[in-house]
Amino acid sequence: MVILPLAIIGIVALAFGFTAWKAKAIEMEFPNTGELIDVGGFRLNSLHVPKPPGADLPAVVFIHGASGNLRDQETAFRRALDGRAEMLFVDRPGHGYSERGGSENGFPDGQADAIARLMEKRGIGKAVIAGHSFGGAIAASFALFHPEKTAGLLLLSPATHPWPGGVDWYYDIAAKPWIGWLFTRLFSLPAGLMLMEKATRAVFHPNPRPEKYLQEGAPALVLRPENFRSNAVDCVNLNAYLRRTALRYREIGAPTVIVTGDSDAIVSAEIHSHGFANAVAGSELVVIRHLGHKPDYMATDVVIAAIEKLAGLPRDLEAAAHMAEARLMPQAEDAPPELDLSIEKT
Hints:
Elements: H1 3-29, E1 35-38, E2 43-49, E3 60-63, H2 70-77, E4 87-90, H3 108-122, E5 127-132, H4 134-145, E6 150-156, H5 169-174, H6 179-186, H7 188-204, H8 213-216, H9 225-245, E7 256-261, H10 273-279, E8 284-288, H11 295-298, H12 300-310, H13 317-328
Parallel strand pairs: 3-4, 3-5, 5-6, 6-7, 7-8
Antiparallel strand pairs: 1-2, 2-4
Helix pairs in contact: 3-4, 6-9, 12-13
Domain AB hydrolase-1: 58-293
Pfam family, one: Abhydrolase_1
Keywords: Membrane, Transmembrane, Transmembrane helix
């Protein structure tokens, strides 16, 4: 009679021990490459590339998506913009190596406020605010609530509008105060390790995932318990936040470009990208055929052209998109993703 409870206790202890050990191992494999700066009661982590001599572009602030960290956007853009612009790659509150801060950071406007304060600490007055996926909701909120700091708005496969339904069940569990604490220390890390290969390939589908993405983008950082919980809370809160915020997008006056793919299985281009383009007067929507959820990696040249256009340079984004389509078509995979990671759950 006593053996079963003791066995359960032993299994739980092993799971806790494995999670603590593996989380530390992940940190050793992917150490912090940024700098923690106090932004008002908590520290935000970022990698700052100072303005180079002869820069021909404004500063650019890059905001990563769900389950991400600053390495994701740094890998995509730092080399491409080297010598041309000041760059700020940010670990969103509770992600990567940033501290979470207060409950306001469970919502895009709170995170946008934190990034605005970080820009002040870094001496950046105005910048092109670039957000990918979930980062698009934060970038849109930044442009809405901090227009004086927004030189331009660039959204990449963004999540910006409410959708029918909710989010994945494991986010609902992980976001809960007590059960979520246990869940992230017993199940989410080992399960995430088993699914990492398929999950990251599904995010890029139908395009091939870059060979070195698991190392250079460091997606494993999100599997650490506190990161996973922060990510879950963000996702659980997003839909309700967008219901009350999306109606205000028409107030955004910054020059705006949205880049999305017609084969995005993660975030509906019709709901979000098209919806945002319809809401923001003067915005330009660029839809690239054969492109999934990662224009930052698979159509980097189009994104750079969009930054140049936001800087006032003459650029034909449709022509750039057509060139990307020709390159992507032979790479597109016919098989559907093995995991359904879509934000919109019904």
